[in-house]
Design a protein that fits this description.
The chain has 11 helices and 3 strands; from the N terminus they run ααααααααααβββα. The protein has 263 residues and is mainly alpha-helical. The chain has a 3-stranded mixed beta sheet with strand order 1-3-2, with no helix packed on it. It is elongated and about 65 Å long. The two termini are 25 Å apart. Pfam families: DUF247.
């Protein structure tokens, strides 16, 4: 787990950078008078962050909460700085200074976005959203934290209003599952029914030899999982692969094996 690695190795440079971000939030954010670090940790506890400590015997509860706070503030600061600067006119409204090294190197921004998809790096989205409320009013933007992350991950327009997700990895799974348009009854049936073992799986060559025609599904959404088979015609969506595809797929598979074993 990335947070555990940071804690054990005591990466002072990164910790210092995160402390700087936390102070920037305290100064720039629309924070109530008298609110300090302790108030923020109390905010996290109100959304049950302490329950996560049941699986963290290697670190004290208070230290774990503080570490999650720093990581959460770093994530918020990263998205706000990279995705809202273009919409902010006044320099004093920008959260961090433009000379910060993180925002001078586009490759670092891309690397962080890729790391935020990894399952081991996830924080509950409800915590990030709850914390973001205290700062967005001061940014003079009509966007929400949800709007910003969807644009950053290039998922804007792919997520239905009101769709919930546990964290960023779960977000990438949900946008794909939503294309199936499953009913509540179908989802419940899938959860209740024990998974069947696949005894034989024919590859594309064998299906083609058997007379199956492969036709690309006319679907604008390249995240679609819809597959249809009728009258010997197998319609499948186009699968676009880039440098980040393997990372996403491996983490979605790990997520489903751990949290969605029957769906």
């Amino acid at each position: 787990m990335l947070m555990r690695l940071h804690y054990i190795l005591n990466l002072k440079t990164e910790e210092t950078f995160r402390d700087i971000i936390l102070r920037a939030f305290m100064l720039k954010g629309e924070v109530k008078e008298g609110m300090n670090f302790r108030h923020f940790t109390d905010l996290f506890r109100r959304v049950r962050v302490e329950t996560l400590c049941l699986t963290t015997e290697w670190i004290k509860s208070q230290e774990f909460v503080e570490m999650i706070l720093l990581d959460s503030v770093f994530i918020l600061g990263f998205f706000i700085q990279t995705e809202t600067t273009q919409n902010i006119k006044k320099k004093e409204e920008i959260l961090f200074h433009e000379e910060d090294i993180l925002f001078q190197e586009p490759c670092l921004i891309t690397t962080i976005l890729e790391d935020l998809i990894l399952l081991e790096n996830q924080l509950p989205y409800v915590l990030l959203e709850e914390l973001s409320i205290h700062f967005f009013a001061n940014l003079k933007t009509m966007e929400t934290f949800r709007d910003i992350i969807l644009r950053a991950f290039r998922l804007k327009g792919e997520v239905k209003e009101g769709m919930n997700f546990r964290h960023f990895t779960d977000l990438f799974r949900r946008v794909r599952v939503e294309t199936l348009c499953l009913t509540k009854e179908q989802i419940k049936s899938a959860k209740d029914k024990p998974p069947e073992s696949i005894k034989s799986l024919h590859n594309a060559d064998k299906l083609d030899s058997a007379g199956v025609d492969f036709v690309p599904l006319e679907e604008k959404n390249n995240l679609s999982l819809v597959i249809t088979f009728e009258r010997g015609i197998l319609e499948i969506p186009c699968f676009l692969a880039d440098d980040n595809t393997e990372r996403i797929m491996r983490n979605l598979m790990a997520l489903e094996q751990c949290h969605y074993p029957r769906t």
